[in-house]
UniProtKB/TrEMBL annotation:
It holds the Pfam family VCA0040-like. It comes from the Bacteria. This is DUF368 domain-containing protein. Keywords: Membrane, Transmembrane, Transmembrane helix. The chain crosses the membrane at residues 12-33, 54-76, 82-100, 112-134, 146-166, 173-193, 199-223, 235-253, 280-300. InterPro entries: VCA0040-like. It comes from Candidatus Xianfuyuplasma coldseepsis.
Length: 308
């Protein structure tokens, strides 16, 4: 039963990894497995049996979500990103109070270093948003398999995996900013069961996965260390990342009337009032799902004990 529960939790973390602006680390915190996940990854060689007993069912759940839902979620976001992303924004917002209490427990003084860590992390997300919008790139659809691009895929895997470890920082959003989300997530991972392109898919996935493994194992040790030695500052940095991620996800909401796929659609912030006037039913539905996301998140974060 314990393994089944871990698979279900891994499934939710996997969903987070393929939603632009959402972080797998965030869902791991809400599901009460974040610190155990860091320990299992960071000590996979020294405590292999215990680590694998935790990581294998979690990884199976993640793989099922990523392989099974990458295309579906991409399709739904193409159709109506407002409705889909507001649900996930609700998930983020619903858990922020609990993360805040991890950083600043009741009746405890607020330290300047704690506030600074949150300001810095929030600012990093804003910089990422600005850079992404200024780059004005819809990304590439395929990757030529050359030696240089194989090295690039390893580096992309490392970068994306490090953002997966940090709650509030989205690996998918980073790949969008760098212009590789469609090529890697949508066209390869989302079509992994298309065996007619198996050679190409493996040529992309294998180096990307190697880089991801290197990044996850290395960076998990760093996060585990700072959580142990600077817990308040670390959790408030996570709070800053989450606050920035909420803003980042709003910028990912596009108008489906302006294109057939999300990556070519115009963002609604360029014509917000006109969009809302033309899509009032979608807006109401999105608000309902936002509230549902908040409620679900509040339920999940009961797993986090509140500090006194």
């Amino acid at each position: 039963m314990e393994y089944l529960i871990l698979m279900v939790k891994g499934f939710f973390v996997g969903i987070a990894l393929i939603i632009p602006g959402l972080s797998g680390g965030t869902l791991a915190i809400y599901l009460g497995i974040y610190e155990k996940l860091l320990h299992a990854i960071g000590h996979i060689f020294s405590e292999m049996k215990q680590s694998l007993q935790f990581l294998i069912p979690l990884g199976v759940g993640m793989a099922i979500a990523i392989i099974g839902l990458a295309n579906l979620l991409g399709y739904l976001i193409d159709i109506n990103s407002l409705v889909v992303l507001l649900f996930f924004i609700g998930l983020l917002v619903g858990g922020m109070k609990d993360i805040y209490r991890q950083a600043i427990p009741k009746q405890h003084p607020i330290e300047a270093t704690t506030i600074l860590s949150g300001v810095v992390s929030f600012s990093l997300i804003i910089v990422l948003i600005v850079f992404g919008k200024l780059s004005d790139s819809t990304g590439i659809a395929t990757i030529d398999i050359t030696f240089f691009n194989i090295i690039l895929l390893v580096l992309l895997g490392m970068a994306a995996s490090m953002t997966m470890i940090v709650p509030g920082v989205s690996g998918s959003a980073l790949l969008i900013v760098l212009g590789y989300y469609t090529a890697i997530v949508t066209n390869v991972i989302g079509n992994i069961l298309d065996f007619s392109e198996l050679t190409y898919h493996l040529s992309v996935i294998v180096p990307f996965t190697i880089g991801a493994a290197i990044g996850i194992i290395g960076f998990s040790k760093v996060i585990e260390y700072v959580l142990q030695h600077y817990p308040k500052q670390t959790y408030f940095a996570i709070f800053g990342f989450l606050a920035g991620s909420v803003i980042a996800m709003f910028f990912e909401i596009n108008d489906p009337a302006t294109g057939t796929t999300h990556d070519v659609q115009e963002p609604i912030y360029t014509h917000l009032l006109e969009f809302l006037g033309d899509n009032i039913v979608s807006f109401i539905g999105a608000i309902v799902l936002f509230v549902g996301g908040v409620i679900l998140s509040r339920y999940l974060t009961r797993l986090i004990p509140e500090k006194e």
